[in-house]
Design goal:
Blueprint lengths: L2 H11 L8 H9 L3 H10 L6 H29 L8 E7 L5 E5 L5 H24 L7
Antiparallel strand pairs: 1-2
Helix pairs in contact: 2-3, 3-4
Length: 139
């Protein structure tokens, strides 16, 4: 929805809202950010203090930072080619951050790399099988 359409629809929505947090309700109903919700509610004549707008901006910046950190962590954990001086293949990390996987001192380096490659191929094959197996879906 464009802003103009949201503002028009919000004129009808506002009198029917029965929740306790108007900004959160507007944000969820119209699918906008906190900052957008505060600004548009102000345009509609709702009295919201400047502190609420600043809080919404801080919250959005904090969420964006959290998302960035999570993406970086997932990228590190999902990297199938990850290794270090102790591990030939790092399969993942414990909650405490310790790596686990196939160690360099396993019997044969060629075997280690082949097992790691086979494991990655098996994961992809299993995922493809799950996506193709839609015969038992109810619709």
């Amino acid at each position: 929805m464009t802003r103009a359409a949201r503002l028009q629809a919000a004129k009808h929505w506002l009198p029917t809202y029965r929740g306790g947090n108007l900004v959160r309700g507007y944000r969820k109903w119209f699918g906008v950010s906190d900052v957008c919700a505060v600004l548009e509610l102000r345009m509609l004549g709702v009295d919201l203090p400047d502190a609420r707008l600043e809080q919404a901006r801080r919250d959005e910046q904090a969420r964006a930072g959290r998302r960035t950190r999570q993406k970086e962590q997932h990228a590190r954990a999902d990297d199938a080619g990850e290794w270090d001086e102790e591990f030939a293949f790092i399969a993942g990390y414990t909650e405490g951050g310790a790596p686990y996987g196939i160690r360099w001192d396993d019997p044969d380096d060629a075997t280690v790399h082949e097992r790691a490659r086979r494991r990655a191929v098996d994961v992809v094959r299993d995922a493809a099988r799950l996506m193709d197996d839609d015969a038992d879906l109810p619709f």
